[in-house]
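Quick question: what would this complex look like in 3D?
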Amino acid sequence: MTRSDHDRSGEALALTVLAPIQAGRESALAEVLDDLPAREGSPLARVPGTHFARFVVIDAPVYEGAPQKRDSWKASRLLFTSNFDAPLERYLDGLRSGLGADGETIFGHCVGYPGQADGRAWTAWLLAHRVKSSLFFGAYGDQAVQTVRDNIATRARLAAFALEAQGLAPAELEARFRAVFAR
Amino acid sequence: MSNGGSEHGSQGVANVEGKATAITVITPVKPWGRAALAVVFWAGRHLTFTLKKLQQLSFIHYARWAVIPRFPDGGAGERLHHTYLLFESNFNGTWDQYIDAFSEVVPARMKAIWGSSYGFPGPIPVEPFKAYIRRNEYIANHYWSAYPGASTTEIIAAQRVAAALEAFTQRSDGLAPDAFAAAYARFLTEVQGDL
């Protein structure tokens, strides 16, 4: 997929969505997003394959002063960015169903949002507001979310084992190792 | 809460999730900048030293730049006076450490990327650079990390540990206890720097 070439780093993909917010609903949308639960309560926790993601309400472009001409949008924007496991199509399915009612509320503040009942219309709307990356960097783009989590858990288990197993006789060391790290 | 150029850029609580910090910067680009950025990012993609330099910074999980000549509006896109440059990053550590590292370690690349944006003061000295980023930064209203307790360095170390453990488990299969204990000691020495 040519469009997403610069959005790839190994098996990780970048998605950037900038959607116009309906006039007068900027503050309400910001409040909805500000009030979302963090961590495992976040709707993004229900979207498989998401490494990092964010929602940002952007009222207006920054004006740096002359000689820049002052810009203003017809509508403020909702920025959604995600760093996630390929492929895109699977991720978008998970995004639509994972966000669920929260997704309806969030994107429902945006212009032309078709709702999630029609999956094709939902995907078309989202991708119509996509911005392609010029450069995407991932420090460990070869690792899926689950791999990262598994590796972190393995490292913690081994560190704990190394402490506990100090001074054990060889036979007991081997038996415990096999028990803890049985494949 | 969006920033829109106010001064509280580095203070947004929603920008932090465990060890991870979000940064979102959108800057207006000078008329000649769009062509210049095409070259800069082409080089970034094809000459691997830029990506390697980012890797050496060792605290960036994921980062992206996007050139926006038109803002999506569901149709042909909304064109403003200027093209805009979006930067988003997910990193561990503090905002100040992050900008300090950009300024100290990769100043030439920072200049190449933001040199065509209005108001960019240069990466050195760092304080005007920080002020510039703050003015152009937007605070996330909601930020999510799948592994908020882990730094980039820990994730990469954990990958090495997991691979080494898998290899050790295989090669130690069937060893007698004494040989196993000796192999285990060598294995721990091998991975201790990553634990």
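Answer marked as accepted. Residues 1-11 of chain B have pLDDT under 50 and may be disordered.
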